[in-house]
Design brief:
Elements: H1 9-18, E1 28-30, E2 39-44, H2 54-65, E3 74-77, H3 81-93, E4 97-102, H4 107-115, E5 119-123, H5 125-134, E6 143-144, H6 151-167, E7 173-177, H7 182-194, E8 199-205, H8 210-217, H9 243-249, E9 252-256, H10 258-272, H11 278-289, E10 296-301, H12 308-316
Helix pairs in contact: 1-6, 2-3, 2-6, 6-7, 10-11
Length: 317
């Protein structure tokens, strides 16, 4: 598979104009945690219309493709948030949409896909992962929007970086939840062009941290994957076509425990009245641990789509 190219600053700025009618400019607010080891800010992508940053990349990619190629509709492979991004934009563009989801995808996200008009095709996790690797699913002839390995998707994600620098020019560190690398590489591409001395950290959870292992080894590795409530990030391996991009743009990966994520999720609710999913709270957990250092740190709260029952369980413990 050919390596994905980093979007240019011009690509990202064009993407911002292209998605302006779909994605909102999300607020950047201070975390109310005087006892934290740094001055922590929250980039609230959980406030997007679909509750996730994924609306940005999906909107940019779909509007770049052109109507002729979309005549049969679109499909994607996603555990939930990219699925919602593609489904939301498909509905706005009057297109049919199908979504290949792993059999352990959370019901909250599946319900949202259906509410937005997407057709859910549930498959075993390994079969779903093959769609991610091969960029295709047998029997579907509509246009495939890859959730990660698409320069247009990455450019759409990179618009977050533009907003951060505009709202907090003195930002020193950015911590970004790491799933496949589309979010972190998009933001990093923008930041490296605008403020090259900013530290860019990915964040993974201990039950699925292939980037940390791969960065240490200097090559993409496969690691043990244990499913958890942190379903928006983590996997068994780094996509080979994404490895050159993320390994060049990301300074390091900060790995947090499930307990740290739970504590950060609760703190977000108690201190700022912010509801985040596990992936969205992971970056905050890393900043609170001190691993991201001191100074002005921006944490990407990537999404807020968490099952109500799971949220209640976490809050009550």
């Amino acid at each position: 598979m050919k390596a994905v190219q980093a979007p240019t600053l011009a690509d990202i700025r064009a993407a911002r104009e292209r998605i302006s009618g779909s994605a909102i400019r999300t607020p950047l607010i201070r975390l109310n945690a005087e006892d934290a080891p740094a001055e922590i800010y929250l980039k609230l992508e959980n406030l997007q219309p679909i509750g996730s940053f994924k609306i940005r990349g999906a909107a940019n990619a779909m509007r770049l493709v052109g109507k002729e190629k979309l005549s049969n509709g679109v499909y994607t492979a996603s555990a939930g948030n990219m699925a919602q991004g593609v489904a939301w934009n498909a509905r706005e563009m009057g297109l049919p949409c199908e979504v290949i989801v792993p059999d352990r995808a959370p019901e909250t996200k599946l319900a949202a896909i259906k509410r937005l008009g997407g057709k859910v095709v549930k498959v075993p996790f390994d079969e779903w992962w093959q769609v991610i690797i091969e960029h295709t699913y047998p029997g579907i002839d509509s246009f495939f929007i890859h959730p990660v390995s698409d320069s247009a998707v990455i450019a759409g994600n990179g618009t977050i970086g533009l907003e951060i620098v505009e709202d907090l020019p003195e930002v020193e560190t950015i911590v970004i939840p790491f799933g496949g690398g589309g979010l972190s590489s998009g933001i990093a591409a923008a930041i490296r062009s605008l403020k090259s001395n900013t530290r860019i950290y990915a964040c993974e959870v201990e039950t699925a941290a292939p980037l940390k292992a791969s960065l240490k080894a200097g090559a993409p590795l496969t690691v043990e994957y244990i499913p958890s409530f942190v379903d928006g990030i983590g996997g068994r391996s780094i996509l080979e076509e994404m490895w050159p991009l993320v390994s060049n743009l990301i300074d390091d990966s900060l790995v947090v425990s499930l307990q740290q994520v739970s504590q950060a999720l609760k703190l977000l609710i108690e201190r700022n009245r912010v509801i985040a999913e596990g992936a969205g709270a992971a970056a905050v957990a890393a900043a609170l641990s001190g691993m991201a250092g001191s100074g002005k740190i921006v944490c990407i709260v990537s999404g807020g789509n968490i099952d109500s029952d799971k949220l209640a369980e976490i809050i009550s413990t």
